[in-house]
């Protein structure tokens, strides 16, 4: 796939995401290639860099959500 075709696919995907989640922050849309990830794994790499970025973002969101639920729970107890 050419760079122009790739850019078109990414733009189309972003447009579709924005149709569903209109106020989605742009930095939450992370393009990555499953082919790239497979090549890295085949060469002995653990996780492709862009996948690692996504995993780190998810871990950060989970820890924030967990902290918020603990905070809400402690407010309910008082």
Order of helices and strands: HHH
Per DSSP, what share of the residues sits in E-state strands of 2 or more residues?
Answer: under 5%
Give the mean pLDDT: 77
How many domains? The number is 2
Task: Please give the radius of gyration in angstroms.
Answer: 18 Å
What is the number of beta strands? Answer: 0
Question: Globular, elongated, flat, extended or rod-shaped: what is the shape?
Answer: flat
Please state the structural category.
Answer: mainly alpha
Q: Can you count the helices?
A: 3
In this structure, how is the largest beta sheet organized? none
In helices, the fraction of residues equals over 70%
Distance between the terminal alpha carbons, to the nearest Å?
59 Å
How is the secondary structure organized here?
Elements: H1 3-20, H2 34-42, H3 49-77
């Amino acid at each position: 796939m050419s760079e122009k075709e790739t850019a078109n696919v990414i733009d189309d995907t972003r447009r579709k995401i924005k149709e569903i989640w209109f106020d989605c922050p742009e930095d939450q849309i992370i393009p990555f290639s499953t082919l790239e990830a497979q090549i890295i794994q085949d060469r002995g790499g653990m996780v492709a860099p862009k996948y690692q970025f996504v995993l780190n973002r998810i871990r950060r969101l989970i820890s924030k959500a967990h902290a918020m639920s603990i905070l809400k729970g402690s407010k309910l107890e008082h």
